């Protein structure tokens, strides 16, 4: 996050003002002192830095990702769903149980203001991952 902020020519004070937190909070986010950053805060930071949310979260939007997006956008809807399902399976395999536990912790922690839509997505994802995990045994 610090690297992106500096690339954009923003000071910690400027970014803090844009998202409504203190400069020290920005520094703590950048150093990783705050591990459970609410989704809405990450989204606000991404907007303030004018970057894609996934990029800010460390999922780089590389040339390969752009190529995938271009190709998938040209596919028929049914084929797009197949690609999406395959990608979701790959992501689940990559992140394994640690990702599931993190999502579940965020869902269970009431201090993180996850909206109903996000909670539904997390719940459906967790159900899917648990079913696949149990089916693989």
Descriptive notes:
GO terms for molecular function: DNA binding. With 137 residues, this protein is an all-alpha fold. The protein folds into two domains: 1-57, Orthogonal Bundle (434 Repressor (Amino-terminal Domain)); 64-136, no CATH class. It is 74% helix and 0% strand. It contains eight helices and no strands. Helix 2 (12-19) packs across helix 3 (23-31) and helix 7 (77-108) crosses helix 8. The longest helix is centred in the C-terminal third of the chain and has 32 residues, at 77-108. The radius of gyration is 17 Å and the shape is globular. The model has no long low-confidence stretch (mean pLDDT 77).
Report the order of strands and helices.
Answer: HHHHHHHH
> In DSSP terms, counting alpha (H) and pi (I) runs of 4 or more, how many helices?
8
Straight-line N-to-C gap: 39 Å
Q: What percentage of the residues does DSSP assign to strands (E)? A: under 5%
Number of strands: 0
Question: Class by helix and strand content?
Answer: mainly alpha
Mean pLDDT: 77
Shape: globular
What Rg, in angstroms, do the CA atoms define?
Answer: 17 Å
Low-confidence stretches: none
Largest sheet: none
Number of domains: 2
* Helix content bin: over 70%
